């Protein structure tokens, strides 16, 4: 295995881990949380937003975009082929649709929710109503983008390496 293919494999793995977290949240956590009363929902989201800030998630969350850029750079040498196009597309989709949406959409909403304390002047129902629709909308975008980026990377991994074809 070449160094550039190892980096591609690591980029694919880290992107898959991020996509998996988002997908799992979409199909299990969000539906379960939808059943909770307002104050419990807010508390549960606050706890998740606190717990997810850990080295294991950080490794994939920050590793994926960095490895994607590195993989793109390594695949940009000659000869250029379909692998480069797929890796570049995955990188752009992930940076904009996953990382960009998370940083620009979900995290500010999470920070806003973190400031809510039970017994505050705002009711839990009002806080939840302000939080849930935009947060879920951004979450669907980042989940879709992460899954698309993963599919593009898997496609790139399945293509024969241009250097291998010439040998």
Automatic annotation (TrEMBL):
InterPro entries: Anthrone_oxy (IPR013901). The chain crosses the membrane at residues 55-74, 86-107. Pfam families: Anthrone_oxy. Keywords: Membrane, Transmembrane, Transmembrane helix. This is DUF1772 domain-containing protein. It comes from Hymenobacter aranciens. The lineage of its organism: Bacteria, Pseudomonadati, Bacteroidota, Cytophagia, Cytophagales.
């Amino acid at each position: 295995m070449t160094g550039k293919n190892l980096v591609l494999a690591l980029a694919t793995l880290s992107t898959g881990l991020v996509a998996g977290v988002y997908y799992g949240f979409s199909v299990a956590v969000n539906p379960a949380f939808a059943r909770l009363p307002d104050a419990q929902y807010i508390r549960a989201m606050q706890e998740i937003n606190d717990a997810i800030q850990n080295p294991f998630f950080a490794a994939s969350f920050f590793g994926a975009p960095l490895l994607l850029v590195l993989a793109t750079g390594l695949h940009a040498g000659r000869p250029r082929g379909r692998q480069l196009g797929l890796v570049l597309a995955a990188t752009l989709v992930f940076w904009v649709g996953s990382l960009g949406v998370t940083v620009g959409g979900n995290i500010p909403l999470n920070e806003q929710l973190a400031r809510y304390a039970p017994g505050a002047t705002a009711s839990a129902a009002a806080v939840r109503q302000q939080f849930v629709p935009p947060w879920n909308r951004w979450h669907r975008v980042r989940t879709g983008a992460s899954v698309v980026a993963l599919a593009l990377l898997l496609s790139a991994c399945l293509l024969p390496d241009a250097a291998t074809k010439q040998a």
